[in-house]
Amino acid sequence: MILHFVDYLILALYFVFVIGIGWLLKKRATTASDFLTSGRSLPVWITSLAFIATNLGAQEVIGMCASGAQYGILTVHFYWIGAIPAMIFVGVFMMRFYYASRARSVPEYLKLRYDEKTRTFNAVTFAVMTIFSSGISMYALGRLFELMLGWSFTSSVLLSAAIVLIYTYVGGLTSAIYNEVLQFFLIVLGFAPLAVLALVKAGGWSGIQHRLSAQAGMTHAWASMAHASQNPMGIEVFGMVAGLGFVMSFGYWCTNFLVVQRAMAANSMSAARRTPLVAAFPKMFMPFIVILPGIAAAALVASGIAPELLGPGKHDYNQVMNRLMASLYPSGMLGVGLTALMASFMSGMAGNITAFNTVWTYDIYQTHIRPKASDRHYLMVGRMSTIAGTVLSIACAYVATLYDNIMNLLQLVFGFVNAPLFATFLLGMFWKRATSHGAFSGLLAGTSAALLTHGLTVADNKGGWMGTTLHTFPSSMAQNFWLSIISWTACFVVTIVVSLMTKPKPVSELRNLVWGATEIPKEPSEKSWYHKPVTLAIIVAVICIALNIYYR
Amino acid sequence: MTAPHSAAGHSAGAGGAEPREGFMWDLRLPTGLFFVAVGVILCAVGLIFPWRASLAPDVNINLDSGLAMLVFGGVMLWLARRKS
């Protein structure tokens, strides 16, 4: 990768803007709740863009491109059967609970609905997940620096850690949300030309289909899913729809405080509900920017035009996006692409570390270690935990080096944390009879079931650390999907059984926490159709179904 | 140049029922300024230097993308100006 002065100029320009915005907004973050939730004052277009920009980190850009190259068009299911239906569900049903209960975090909702031990269990697993997520972003940014600067992996990771620390420390969430919006535009404008170039180079969509015709299922999203052996992901319709479409995606979007928090920063309940629905529009079309280049790269490799995209020897999917940029962008756009990637890594890391900081400060430190301290004290603890979170992320960046596709690791972490939690949530919100002992034993059972599955099954030489191998999956992703189905089911069943054996909370204590016992504050009837959540949801659903049918 | 002044002005002047109203307006200005600046740089590079990528030797992607960014940045600035 050869960089010229102009690439550094664009990079520098971007950081001047980011630091400038952070510095300007910092003056306003004077109280702890200001610093952490932006005071619930943001307009919908900003919270919506921030909502998707939050997970437009290394996961999306590098991981989706890597998965496009490894699994082909099956990767779009992360969007069209996964994220979009889940975002609709969050907007139409879940958001009113989050907003009405006035909880600052998902663990806080768990405390109100269940009890302290359930909340703490979740706070701990969630904290682990945020650290892994930011560690994976740090790994990917490190790999980029490796390629760009020719540095060693260790120096590259330390550099990215230093950058994110300064970034988070300077602004907190307020600047994180605002910078995420800028980054979102930068990613779209920086990578859309790459997708177009890669598509044209591979001969258009029909050219890609032709070049990948030898690899079954790379270019048909549904036609190859009757049996696991017919597609590169090694998954069949049930595993895909139940594992990814239901457990993983609903679990991620409903229970990931990191994204929910973005909607909670909106200026009214109606605005909070519209946030995921408005966000679904750009989200639906992200595959054309982040997955398509990966599929095109696979086609270019298969036809021998550019075999270097997947690297010499064993395929290294994590570097596909970086290598595509190096061979399709000259200096100038290369600088824009690199800046967009760095921006996306930073939003991934900063968002996760900010969430870690919130969960640690409010749900663990304030609850168990030092309650009733001053606001100023918690603000200080929040900042200290940012540093601790960064250090822990560095360790996770080294775990990520063991995976040739970071998406495989990321979904594994989600399977452990979000899958059981989603069962706890569903039951908590829709079943008054669910008890706190039930929820706690359910979460424990779900997480243990995930451990057992990972310990007793093998995929891509990973897992099976318990000694016996009961099953071998065709791909890591298939293992992740089944692991999440199993852990969700374990949590769901155990929660119900234990709940039926224990004493439920009186209904008076469940007000505003359970469907049916909630007085939804009267929303002023919206004048225009595009302000009504249900109308937006129907439009999103129709477009999404059409995309699924077209690329079947 | 104007961004710092306007932000400071809003924070000092508001302080009433909606102290953060100025934020939304603020964001369009830096976004617009940023993309206009990047657009200008890219167009200049595309017009002056013959740099091409190894896999796409016949496309002047700097000029094409630069123009797109100029348009996007311009629209953002126009929105910010209209709002103020």
Order of helices and strands of chain A: HHHHHHHHHHHHHHHHHHHEEEHH
Structural class of chain A: mainly alpha
Low-confidence stretches of chain B: 1-25
Oligomer: heterodimer
Question: How many independent structural domains of chain A?
Answer: 1
Q: What is the CATH topology classification name of chain A?
A: Sodium/glucose cotransporter
Tell me the strand order in the biggest sheet of chain A.
2-1-3
The share of residues in helices of chain A is over 70%
What is the number of beta strands of chain B?
Answer: 0
Number of beta-strand segments of chain A: 3
Calculate the mean pLDDT score of chain A and round it.
85
Measured by residues with Cβ under 8 Å of the partner chain's Cβ, the largest interface is: A-B, 38 and 37 residues
Determine the number of helices of chain A (DSSP H or I, runs of at least 4 residues).
21
Provide mean pLDDT of chain B, rounded.
72
The percent range for strand residues of chain A is under 5%
- CATH architecture call of chain A: Up-down Bundle
Structural class, judged by helices and strands of chain B?
Answer: mainly alpha
> Major beta sheet of chain B, specifics?
none
